[in-house]
Specification:
This protein is α+β, with helices and mostly antiparallel strands. It has a domain at 32-110. It contains two helices and five strands; from the N terminus they run E-E-H-E-E-H-E. It has helices at residues 40-52, 82-92; strands at 2-13, 21-32, 66-71, 74-79, 106-110. The protein has a three-stranded antiparallel β-sheet, covered by helices on one side. The chain has a two-stranded antiparallel ribbon with strand order 1-2. Strand 1 and strand 2 (21-32) form a beta hairpin. It is globular, with a radius of gyration of 17 Å. The termini are far apart.
């Protein structure tokens, strides 16, 4: 079982008045359940876990990058943060078996250049 440690950024107001908003990173954990490789859905989900959650396989240093993930005729553009990928994984697990028929997990990362002010 793989455990993913990530931070969820929350914004809250401290005190009274304007301009008292602070952002806090709340540490969270997600335990990835064991998924069998017997079905195509299981193979696809295990490919996702191996790509993004197994230590050393993915670089989360580039926060402006996007992960392009392909499933049937749908292309997903996911931010390159653990928080976004964990929530995407939770939602994609809910899909039915037939959505993964004849599908192989494929994704790539696109690094976006940050534009500097003139």
């Amino acid at each position: 079982m793989t455990v993913v440690n990530y931070k969820m950024t929350r914004t809250y107001k401290k005190g009274y008045g304007y301009g008292r908003v602070q952002a806090v990173g709340v540490p969270m954990k997600y335990k990835v359940p064991k998924i069998s490789n017997k079905t195509e859905k299981g193979k696809w989900l295990n490919g996702f876990v191996k790509k993004f959650f197994v230590a050393g396989n993915h670089n989360f240093r580039f926060s402006t990058a996007k992960n392009y993930i392909h499933l049937q005729t749908t292309h997903f553009n996911i931010n390159n943060t653990k928080y976004a990928l964990v929530n995407f994984f939770k939602n994609i697990k809910k899909l039915k078996q037939h959505h993964f028929d004849n599908q192989v997990f494929s994704s790539y990362v696109v690094y976006q250049q940050t534009k500097e002010a003139a």
